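Run folding on both entries below.
>entry_1
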Amino acid sequence: MKRKVYLLFVLFFILSGCMEKEITKMEVEMFNATGDSLGTIKVDEQSEGVQLTVLLEGLPPGEHGLHIHEKGTCKAPDFKSAGNHFNPEDSMHGLLHPEGAHAGDLPNIIVEDGKVDAQLMAPQLTLKSGKKNSLLRVKGTSIIITEGKDDGMTQPSGDSGARIACGEITDKEAKREDKKEVKPPEEE
């Protein structure tokens, strides 16, 4: 009997090592249009959604829009490569919109003396892979900061102006797998 329990324990231990590691937190480095690092946004899976801890400096003072975008590509200077707001449920834009908001709609941030230190909650998002609302998609997602504040209603993006900063949210392991060279089968 002890041997069976021992074998089951060893089998469980071996199988658990083979399972994929679920990502529960990550840091997203943010860059401005000239490629300068502004700091990081920490992204943590919580029971209520995804918490973002914004620790940045070098931004213009004032209120700025902050959104998750549908592609994990940040090509400066305009960051249009990030695509539109992340919207897996095809919702209307805006945290104040009566019909709901995009999953990627986040509260505005306020920059004072070039710095921002804020915590935000994104209840519609997750880091759990395979979920429709996961930030860890095959092509990734990104975080965008805009030059002005998001008004919370205007379609499709809150009338918040140009994109001034971007950070890529990607599963680095998945990206490495995507970049591995696929060798054609050997001819006989």
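>entry_2
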Amino acid sequence: MAVADLLSDDEDRPIVIVSVGTDHHRFDRLVQWTEDFAAKRLDVAFVVQRGTSRSPKGVTSQELIPHQDIQAMFRRAAVVVCHGGPSTVMDARAQGRLPIVVPRNPDLGEHVDGHQMRFADHLETNGIAKVARSEAEFTRMLDEALLSPEEFSIGVAEVTVPPGVVRFGQVLDDLLGVTTPINRPDVADSVPTNQENLSP
């Protein structure tokens, strides 16, 4: 089934969108967790934006999904799961979804460093996202989100993110020489560029 088919009006199952981002490191761990969960939940449609990770068995996936398309998919999804990149997290929230974040772990070869893990801690502390650090947490959170999707939806008033949270991600990117741009101009343009404004 093509990715576009899951956006059609004919798809009446709840949809889970999983985005691993575009980093060149593979994120097969998240792909495997999704594959395992999907095998037990045939009543749910899954779409994985897999990047350089392996293609999941029994799950619709695509290496890259254009930004406009994945935004539409986030908006339609019952649940959004993503890596710990600031851009993807804020994009999910902009579409009214409280994302489940699975940060990449450098000890497993998923990134060059632990900045996603630190950023995920910051997101969790500020109530910006749910964070799953193990497959058990991932499974529990997905079950909760599918059972009570309203708990993983946010209203327009909640979409605004404290500038310090966004700036935290940007400072980490700058220090580590990586790029996870914020695609929401209203957020990015309002964030100060000096590190003195780091606190949320």
